[in-house]
Amino acid sequence: MADPSTCPPLTPSSIHSAYHKIKRYIHRTPLQTSTSLDAIASSPDPTVYLSDSPPSVAPKFRLWFKCENFQKIGAFKARGAFHAVTRLVEELGLEEVRRRGVVTHSSGNHAQALALAAHTFSIPSYIVMPTISTASKIAGTRLYTPNVIFSGSTSQEREAVVADVIRDKGAILVPPYDHPDIILGQGTAGLEMEEQFREASGTGTDANASGAATAPAPALDAVIAPLGGGGLLGGTATYFSDKPGTLVFGAEPSFQGGDDGRRGLLTGKRVEHVKTLTIADGLRTPVGITNWSIISDKRKVEGLYAVTEDEIKMAMRLVYERMKVVVEPSGCVGLAVVLFNAEFREMVVQKQKQGKEDVWDVGIVFSGGNTTMKALSKLFADDDVQGGEPEVAKEREEGTVAMDGTRDVEDVAG
Amino acid sequence: MADPSTCPPLTPSSIHSAYHKIKRYIHRTPLQTSTSLDAIASSPDPTVYLSDSPPSVAPKFRLWFKCENFQKIGAFKARGAFHAVTRLVEELGLEEVRRRGVVTHSSGNHAQALALAAHTFSIPSYIVMPTISTASKIAGTRLYTPNVIFSGSTSQEREAVVADVIRDKGAILVPPYDHPDIILGQGTAGLEMEEQFREASGTGTDANASGAATAPAPALDAVIAPLGGGGLLGGTATYFSDKPGTLVFGAEPSFQGGDDGRRGLLTGKRVEHVKTLTIADGLRTPVGITNWSIISDKRKVEGLYAVTEDEIKMAMRLVYERMKVVVEPSGCVGLAVVLFNAEFREMVVQKQKQGKEDVWDVGIVFSGGNTTMKALSKLFADDDVQGGEPEVAKEREEGTVAMDGTRDVEDVAG
């Protein structure tokens, strides 16, 4: 990995530079909206949003979904991997990086993202995977690299194999999240999100768009991203760090202590070990060290909120049935917080009472879409979420989603 | 319903007029692409697209997915319903239509589409639904109309109740597919598809786009739409009827004789009764009379092809896992034909051998996305589609989908 001491600083302008480097290799994923999810999120109790319960106070939202589920390899991880690789090439020269290759241990999205990024530059990549990895993930990684190397499944065993590869091949380690280059790469999702929000609000940064005098650019009131290792949230918070009008929040699963970030903030100390089998499998890792330095900085991250497994599943169901898009469980935690976390919702109500914004524009990062029909089917098999609510409400479907990033067309009374 | 004798003729220019009328009420749904589905479709045997079997002849495709699953009420039906209602208003005057109201019998997407369209113009709508309809569908329809009227479940019983409503209220019948206004409305999906294909190919119809001399506009080589009652396929075929460069095909489920259109073509006679429980539940109806006059016209529809339940499910799984979008089974039959129907694929191979086009640009209509997690989970529960293929291939994911209608960014070798 590029020497952290020579890395660009963790600032918004470094994210602009990162974006310039990786732009041609990644998708500019769409920023979508959903009338029905706005209505549900803005109702007093989203769990029973069609009930006849008396109206009570509710926060008001316009939600903007950044669809990294449509990103290359199906997740935001492509951003960090391409940035890390382009930075290595810049620092060491292409020939040197090609000679040595890159290495990581992962059986998830980072493995594939790194293998793809390396493959793009004809750089060999060595991916250390536990022997117990599923055949499909091994085969998937092999599409971009012939060098899948097996190890035991504990971190010590995996790290020992990585150390061997580094010693034998001189390969350069590209860690999944705990490195400035990765964080800056992931932060480009925040940059694009803001850019697209402005375009949709009619004040794109494109100077050609209007010759009129420049009004203050509209800002997202809040952004919420999933928190696992902290690359995505750390990068997003870094990008918005000089934009006090946009509050940045993190979302975690609470199952079996998966909310290590939130717990760390309570004690003022990073939680180093996490062992959870939450369905949000991309968020099972503890927050990284560099990432923690950003996330624990109150000026950068306004707060962390956690949700239950059932809340994640309920959010996921709404995303499928209303927006008709496939998002993996880890990608749904941000929306789950907005819909179901009472503390978060109360906080927004209070801020809306005080502030001038009646309705908050909230950017939610759908971090990835890598799941299978088999996994989905299993996840919802013994579910009998009845009471009519979700299914009844589904039928309300009407202004599903405007794919061009603009607001949905509303019904127009004749 | 507007008197068929005063309806606009079934021509492309009537579809342009229809589009002009309904444009403000519907979504311009995106036209998406997928590098990985192109690769799968263009491989010799898409059922084992990662096998090491020796290469054989395969058709070559670039696929363009028209995402009506993102349409209002989650299906293309909104187009026909809005067109039928605006035509009624035009012909009888808004006050008259408001006084009388509109009526239909359906428990599916047409019921909701008509209720929404009527509601938009403050026109009362009466929706006759069988008492055995699921609670969620009844509740969904009730969001747009208080007038849900119950009947028995046979067609005779339902039609008797409709007749009562017409007699008592003077309400105007809006049938689900067998009417020119409905057909013309659904045809706007074809119009948009062509428009978006041209935009993506860099030669939009927008005169501002280029001042250069006009080259011949690029054309889709083929378009394939699901065939149930025939509104969508009939409208699409009508739209392309003056464009011989674009062949129009229909796709049907073969289960329990669901391929009534194909069987009708073989005998030269419309099949009047169909009783199938295919998972493609939107395609269980026989082709309508007006629709048949279009579909059986060889100058308008080049051919009809049928697929099995397993082929529909396999296509559906690919759409979810690769494109990350939710499409209902009925919406996946077109893709299933392209991937798995040997007769269709051989036909394309032969035409490609003869013609000048090496790769066909094929527009596929994803007709709707109205399914539930519960239904999905049930559909794939006892599935153990192993052999590695679909799951292994899934991981190939790389250039999932370009949402702006342009081609995906391909890997760029360094």
TrEMBL record, chains A, B:
Biased composition (Basic and acidic residues): 391-414
Disordered as annotated region, ranges: 386-414
UniProt-listed Pfam families: PALP (PF00291)
Residues of the Tryptophan synthase beta chain-like PALP domain: 60-341
Origin superkingdom: Eukaryota
Cofactor: pyridoxal 5'-phosphate
UniProt key word Lyase: yes
Any one GO molecular function term: serine racemase activity
Record keywords, A-Z: Lyase, Pyridoxal phosphate
Matches recorded under SUPFAM superfamilies: Tryptophan synthase beta subunit-like PLP-dependent enzymes
Family: Belongs to the serine/threonine dehydratase family.
Protein known as: Threonine dehydratase
Source species of the chain: Cladophialophora yegresii CBS 114405
